[in-house]
Amino acid sequence: MACALKGGRRGRVVELELGELNLLGTVTPALGNLTYLRRLGLSRNRFHGVLPPELEIQQNNFSGVLPPDVGSKLPKLTDFLVSQNNFHGVLPSSLCNASMLQEIQTNDNFLPGTIPQCLGIHLSNMSIVALAANQFEITDDGDWGFMTSLTNCSNLKELEISANKLHGVLPDSIGNLSTGTKSINIANNNITGKITEGKGNLINLRELYMEYNMIIGPIPASLGKLKMLTELHILNNALSGSIPETLGNLTKLATLTLGTNVISGAIPDSLCNCPLEVLDLSYNNLSGPIPKEIFSISSLSSFLHLSHNSLFGTLPSEVGNLKNLGDLDFSNNRISGEIPTSIGDCQSLEYLITSGNILEGTIPLSLSEVPKIGVFLNLTTTLIIGNDGLCGVIPLLKLPLCSNHTSKKLHRKLDMIVSLCCAFAFVTLVFALSLLYQKSQKTKANLQRAVMGEQYMRVCYAELASATGDFSSNNLIGAGSFGTIYKGTMRDKGRGVVVAVKILNLMQRGARQSFIATCETLRCARHRNLVKILTKYLIFVGFQSMDWATKSPPMAMEFCCWRCSREKRPTDREFGEAIGLRKYVQNALPDRVSTVVDQRLLTETKDGEAAGISGNRDMRIAGVSSILDVGICCSEEMPTDRPPIGEALKKLQTIKDKFLKNLCSEGASSSR
């Protein structure tokens, strides 16, 4: 590569952009000679090997340790972008010396240790700190010092430290971050404590992600001051108290997820002021009726989840206003009354789940008024189990017919007549079948006595081998195209019985057909020169080649899943252009398994409702971690790197046996 520079000063390259050029090989250490270099772009190539002192290299496969003196060697560095690689080792504290640094992005690597506490002391120009999906640890309150230092970054726009191993109480200093901060993501950690009132000072905050932690206490009313907020995710924590009315002040809020907590009280009708597209309040202790104002939020389009609460009352007719809603789930509550006919106006509905309530009355006919079947051309799931009072004429739902009060007496008479006729027909049919059965039994017994004389002998392979001298050649009677015949002497009721044993050669073409034809002939023929059939073997024919040394990939099997959890989507923030589900799970192994698994799999349940954080969680996490590890091995990109299916099966069986053994031990200890 030649570079023609104008002027008398040579070698003073300040920017070098080599991104998206499909370059291969290692990166030359000669880049260190560019002493005035401020920006180096190497992203979206196929470089490998150890990283020399240069920077923008995200979405590659670099490994090794980050240069510890990178900040000292490049003091004028502005961007440090190493996301989506395989780096390990600590984050260099020398980055604090690069006073012009504006962005640090190390997402999706394997960086351990603590986050440098000097991160924001001398870096007042810092705008983005993205350290998600690594192995950073916080074990005591002192390790949170970096959060306090970031309060010096007046230009901070984004803070992302999700999917690490951060423990302890979130410091109050998070509320003192720059008022220009737009996004904070601390999800998928083990953070405890309460949500501080100080977060209400972040008046320009647009996104707040705090899900999958162990945060307790009420939702502070000060969150209602975040007028610019569009995303609020606090699901899968241990929040209590009620939903504050002040959340209705968030007039730009599009997503609100508070599911899987212990929130109580009523659903505030002030939420109708928010232009919500997603609302998840499932798996809580909410009570009271569903406010009809909720169904006036016409912007609801993705899903409305209110399941597994204690809501009661009727389903408001305003549900028909949700014309763009794709998923409606209010199962496992105490909703009563009839399903309003206006639900037929929800033309975009794909999932309708009402099971576990006390609904009654007629299913609206609008559920069957679209082309082919169903009100909703896009409707894929309708669950109404547990609503014994429902009735209707829609064949797809298999409900009983609804009774008409004006003809109730006539229906009773008809029911009585039909019942009597059915009973008489049933008794007659049973009597006739019993006669036929007795007659067939007599005929069968006579036939067995005439043809067989006695029951088959029960013979195992060892007895046959002993009777024929281990199929010795001295007992060989003859050999044909499809098998060999041996003479043997067996013991039956204390006497010796001379038998002929035929061994088929199923590898010979036509052997199976010959065997079937011979059996058919012996079944029908009776002759003194034909050998009497004493017994039979079960044979299993159909295995391809019967050569266990043959190695081939197993075929995929179709399966039926009654209902899938949809916590993760391909469009979620965790998945970028270069990270898929396998990489996402691999990054979580072995210490962050709980961040990629539905928390309901790791907690004990009672009567179908979440029981909180209880039971031997570590034992469950260990079992799931082992299973995911087998899955990672079996999904290697190169087929030759994948273990044989038998080896994978043995590993899964070992995991199962160990888990059940530990489970039994736990049960025995608890019973004492």
UniProtKB/TrEMBL annotation:
GO CC aspect terms: plasma membrane
Domain Serine-threonine/tyrosine-protein kinase catalytic residues, every copy: 474-535
GO molecular function: ATP binding; protein serine/threonine kinase activity
Superkingdom of this protein's organism: Eukaryota
Keyword set, alphabetical order: ATP-binding, Kinase, Leucine-rich repeat, Membrane, Nucleotide-binding, Receptor, Repeat, Signal, Transferase, Transmembrane, Transmembrane helix
Binding site for ATP: 502
Keyword rRNA-binding: no
Subcellular location: Cell membrane
InterPro entries referenced in this protein's UniProt entry, alphabetically: Kinase-like_dom_sf, Leu-rich_rpt, LRR_dom_sf, Plant_RL_S/T_kinase, Protein_kinase_ATP_BS, Ser-Thr/Tyr_kinase_cat_dom
Residue spans crossing the bilayer: 417-437
Membrane topology according to the record: Single-pass membrane protein
Protein name: Putative LRR receptor-like serine/threonine-protein kinase
